[in-house]
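During the second year of the project, the team shifted from modelling isolated chains to modelling whole assemblies. The rationale, set out in the original proposal, was that interfaces cannot be judged from single-chain predictions alone. As a representative example for this report, we include one of the complexes processed in the last quarter. Its constituent sequences, exactly as entered into the pipeline, are reproduced here:
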Amino acid sequence: MSEIILDVQNLNISYITDGVETQAVRDAHFTLEQGEFVGLVGESGSGKSTLGFAIAGLTKPPAVITGGKVLFNGTDLTSLSTEQLREQRRGGVAMVLQSGMNALNPVRTVRNHFRDIFEAHGHIERSQWDARAAELVAKVQMPETVLTRYPGELSGGMRQRVSIALALSLEPQLMVFDEPTTALDVLVQHAVMDTIIELQKQENFTAILISHDLGIVLESAQRVFVMHEGKIVESGPARQILDKPKDDYTQMLLSHYADPRGKVVELPGFEDRAARGAQGKKRSAGAAHPPSVSERERRTDQRSMVVEGVSKVYPPPRRGEQPVTAVDNVSFTLEPGASLALVGASGSGKSTIAKLITAVEKPTEGTIMFGDLNVGTLRRGRFRELHRDVQMVFQDPYSALNPLHTPGAELHQSPG
Amino acid sequence: MTTPTSVAQAAVLVEEEEAVASSGTGRRNLIFIARKLGLFLLTLWAAVTINFILPRLMPGTPADAIIAKLAQNGPVSEATRSAIEAQLGVPGGNLFEQYIQYLGQVLTLDFGVSYTFYPLTVSEMVSTALPYTLVLVGVVTIIAFILGTLLGVLAAWKRGTWLDTLPTLGGSFASAFPYFWTALLLLFFAGYVWRLFPTSGAYGPTATPALTWDFFVDALYHAFLPALTILITSLGGWILGMRNTMISTLGEDYVTFAQANGLKPRVVALRYAARNAILPNLTGFGLALGGVVGGSILVERVFGYPGVGYLLFNAVTNQDYPMMQALFLMITLSVLVANFLVDILYGVLDPRTRR
Amino acid sequence: MTTTQGVKQQAAIADAVTPWQSFVRTTSTIWTNGKARVGVIVLLLFILVAIFAPLIAPYSPTDNSFDRSLDASPAHWLGTTAAGEDVLSQLIWGSQISILVGLVAGGLSTIVAVLIGLSWGYSRGFGGEVVGFIVNLFLVIPALPLMIVIAAYFSGGGIGIIIVVLVITGWAWGARVLRSQTQSLRSRDFVTAAVFSGDRPFRIVVREILPNMTSLIVGSFFGAATASILAEAGLSFLGLGDTSIVSWGTMLYWAQNSNALLTGQWFLLFAPGLCIALLATSLTLINFGVDGISNPRLREQKPSKTTKAVKA
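Output from the structure prediction step:
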């Protein structure tokens, strides 16, 4: 039986802004044994990151711990002074932040990042610093040359690995990974996760993986905690959560994850979220008269989107560099009523194809025909004609809507 | 390197290796410097051209217009008239020819003869005055920048405490005073009332400029009040600028990560936060310098400090156009050179610009 | 990607607001900021003085029938100038010029900055580089020397020329700031969506981009107004303004010329300078509040009652 290394008791954390208090974590309590790999899963805003930060002793205003204890090997982290907290990091709790995009100092080389840590804790001999750094980056499968690089010269996945190696240099007993792969490509995500899993086995630290991606958590963690609106609503072995979820919220989460065509469990209060949003929009757009769905279906000129030999080449982003070929000789036909999925790593050109089809960009070569409308050479005057039938839903909901316009105003503008 | 355990890992690792292998910074540094140098020369040329165009915007030919202005204050001597015509070119000459002639004059630093100090040439007068201003403004600005930056870091790090409010508010308040007003106050109290410092000049009436220690001390004594004025007025801007960028930077992930890794607070504040926060302020430095230079003109006027600012003021009062043109160019040139140096410094400090 | 705090802020932005709500939120952010509140009060005071100058001032500012260089007395609270004019009246009337120049020059500079900044930021291509060079040119060339030279060549043009000179040297800063914000907004999806509905660029800039930049434009205006007031004072002090009109700057010019320091009438120098400083400070203080709108991190937090202090 392994010893208990983390004991969280009745932890309460709130965000206080402009005098208003919002509870982020309610009454969290659980224990972790040495060597465990647990997952903490929940939607955005469920409080999982806040909890993770508290465990790592990084809670900063506007977040405030309003009650409870975080006992790490018997010491209550919430009662330590800043200096004491700092010292216990070596061999204590380390944290890897959300997708190391921004976790590295842009003006210091990777090697200097390691040196800073060694200098702060003094657990490695000065003469051994560079050797130890090389060892650590090797553990995350990076070549030694990465040490001379600046963070800006590394890709997202590489930066994330470097972050992991840096956290590892503290020789921690407990590592908290906060959404380590969220902003990364699908392929890179798996590579990084595999590295994390391997590392945990080799170095035998206790790991907490925080993620909203249920799939990743279930694949790597032994035990899973599910958080919803600040409370831990369910916990148990990963297998058990998957097969026999007890809590309603967990069931709902799982059903959305498992099979898109399978049975979807709706919770009271949740099922209307999507519908309610759409209804709200419909109500304010009542004044305009968009053609109803049935009207549109009645249209007899159902057209195909025919893409032939299309290429899109962008001029070099900076002087002296090569032009960028975003799309290279792509052809496909989209029949009316069919749906086509474009899948690929970032940079593979899928968004560009979407832009070409919707006439946001013009192809460098090839033709795009929508019925008898030549989309590739469309002039601005005829945009509305195209966009009556061809529309785009953007990736980032926050930036797709003008923050100052109400949805009603947006819809009033639409061509209908 | 430990062997990859999955196909995904292997594929990604190969890509990453290739990315890390490519490099080459030497040539990029040269390109960077060349680019900045090019911009510097281009801007300088534009300033010179503006100087050429301005007098020709006045109605009539420039020579006639200037002579007419001078005539308002009294009869214009023949010597002055011929000096003006020699300076601005014979009326009726082709504009392009005048421009070429003008460029040639500028390159050989031939700015003609001063009206007020005839027969001394403008170049002589300017070269005597320039060092005083360069030293005064240069030294004080550097001190103000360093001091202001440090106080700004402190203010942001200790946000909300008196270490924050005092420098920030105090600095903003002091910088709202027009340069000449602070100068007048200092002159009145420290100069006249308390008689701590001299009230005019760059050195005492019995001293002669020489590279001696005594002269140096005398010059310092005379430059103290003007320097203090510039310092007081410009400090607030640096403090505020650094404080704001610092506060933004402190919210960055890499600061949190540095703290997560247990780095000492001072290291985090300086090596991680301040080191990044200073960069936008460096870009601002070059631009703010123009403001400081403008302020120094007012300060020199108040203190009668014989630098280029005081000379410019005199030139304006006496409508000494050759002098005005030359001074404007010299002042602009100094600011451009300073900007160029700061640009290079920025390139050194921020590796991202060199990629 | 965004930091954890950043995600929460983005969520806050996504809540839609009406223009009225936006205005109220702006005003309350400014008002809650202590420094800004002081600035607003002082500014309003000055504006009131300027508007009611004819009613408040005891004498006409150009009335030079009084004895010269008098000290403070019940008849002349601040004494008289070397030419025999009442200092207090001059001070009150002078506020009109300073405020007028500040608002007009500041406003015109901001308008030019908006026009150039937004169109420069929206368009892509080589034209942008050329505009960029011109903007940089005006930024780098030291303002006061340029103003001095221009004003000297065109002296005798009165306040109008001064304002023109101030605008020429003052638009560049705002243009640069607005341009960079326009650029970052331009690449956001909602602008692409608008392009895509067939909107003409002008419409897009005005409907989609402009409203998102109000706080930046307002901040730009206050900055330009401050700079204009200080610059006008400087130019007048050097004798380049219209020396026949009464402004705080010309008051200082005449004071310096009549050696007020030697006659001991230091308040002749003190009073107008203090007014200039206070007016400029009030605008700067207001800008503190405006900063807080565009950069939420700079907003001052209200102190709250917490049970446990958290160590960063």
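The CA atoms of residues 268 and 310 of chain B lie 46 Å apart. Chain B touches chain C through 59 residues (CB under 8 Å).
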